[in-house]
Amino acid sequence: MLPDSNINEPASHGYLTYQLKQKDQLALGEVIRNSAAIYFDFNEAVMTNETFHTIGENFIGTTGIATISNTISLQVYPNPMREYVIFDLQNIVFHEGRLELYNSIGQLVRTEKIRDNTFQVKRKSLNPGSYFFRLSLDDYLSTTGVIQVLDSVR
To answer: Could you say which of 20, 84, 129, 135 has the lowest number of CB atoms within 10 Å?
Structure first.
């Protein structure tokens, strides 16, 4: 029961969080996909972007980008990272993007401009820990995820 955006734009935003327990018998490499339907008043459903998680070992996944098309994908590797992480966007053309990194208490710690589908983010001053990222492309398409920064010495 959110107010209309014409009446109170900031209060018209909503969000949903959820947690799942995955089945034990899922094979490595299997993909779990998820999307939701949003209903405004009594209108037809508006479908959200589809997110996905690939079953694997020793990594932290990212959400998929599918706001415009289900064919757009993002790979982030190596994750966890030591000195750098590579972001690889596939099946999309964009002019300008922005990557924002947030620490575990939600503080913005870095912003980088993006112009290429594949780009590297160097560790620089990032301490070991988890960092949330938001990748925005041409101010209308975005995705979020987590990267894990390990100690630089093995």
So the answer is: 20
Cα–Cα distances (Å) from 12 to 4, 67, 79, in that order, read: 6, 20, 35
Give the C-alpha separation, 132 to 154, whole Å: 23
| Residues 79-125: tens digit of each pLDDT | 888 999 999 888 888 899 999 999 988 899 999 999 999 999 999 99
5 lies in which domain range?
Answer: 1-57
For 72-88, the pLDDT digits (tens) are 778 888 888 899 999 98
**b/e 36-69 (16+ beta carbons within 10 angstroms → b):** eeeeeeeeeeeeebbbbbeeeeeeebbbbbbeee
Contact, 20 vs 26, CB < 8 A?
no
Asked if residue 138 and residue 89 are part of one domain, the reply reads: yes
